[in-house]
Design goal:
By secondary structure, the protein is of the alpha+beta class. The protein has a single domain, classed as Molybdopterin cofactor biosynthesis C (MoaC) domain (Alpha-Beta Plaits, 2-Layer Sandwich), CATH 3.30.70. The radius of gyration is 18 Å and the shape is elongated. The chain starts with about 20 loop residues before the first strand and ends with a strand.
């Protein structure tokens, strides 16, 4: 196995995708931000001082996904054809570890020469960061965790799903 972003001299590079065919590609990623139950209730009840936390996190995630190539050096700019960020409140007893918080799922699609996993991962990460930013005044102990790829499909390697 070789790293595709390293050239023969060991230098980083952007992969040349000019000869690859366009294919439909999709990626799904997730993240979780844990918090105090009281913080979750402020969010769900729409009483956070900065406004609608979940709406803001959704928009921030979509915007971040669209800007991924600006912040991840070797990512290609993509003409994104699909973007969706979902924010689901998780209450006590709904997770195996007992944590309370917001579960973020991001789905991105493109018809192109390279995958869209980084856009989905960036969207999930930034949506979690946005929740933190909007609620840090009441809960500095929030923790972002479990940011990971769930699924990618398309291109030469086809379908991959987390077990």
């Amino acid at each position: 196995m070789e790293l595709t972003h390293i050239d023969e001299q060991g230098q980083v590079r952007m992969v040349d995708v000019s000869e690859k065919p366009d294919t439909v590609r999709i990626a799904v990623a997730e993240g979780f931000i844990s918090m105090k139950p009281e913080t979750l209730e402020l969010i769900v009840e729409g009483k956070a001082a900065k406004g609608d936390v979940l709406a803001c996190a959704r928009v921030a995630g979509i915007m971040a996904g669209k800007q991924t190539s600006s912040i991840i050096p070797m990512c290609h700019p993509l003409l994104i054809t699909k973007s969706k960020v979902e924010c689901t409140p998780v209450r006590a007893g709904e997770r195996a570890d007992g944590r309370v918080g917001i579960h973020i799922t991001s789905t991105f699609g493109v018809t192109g020469k390279t995958g869209i996993e980084m856009e989905a991962l960036t969207a999930a990460s930034v949506a979690c960061l946005t929740v933190y930013d909007m609620c840090k005044a009441v809960d500095r102990g929030m923790e972002i965790m479990d940011v990971r790829l769930l699924k990618k499909d398309g291109g030469k390697s086809g379908l991959w799903e987390r077990a």
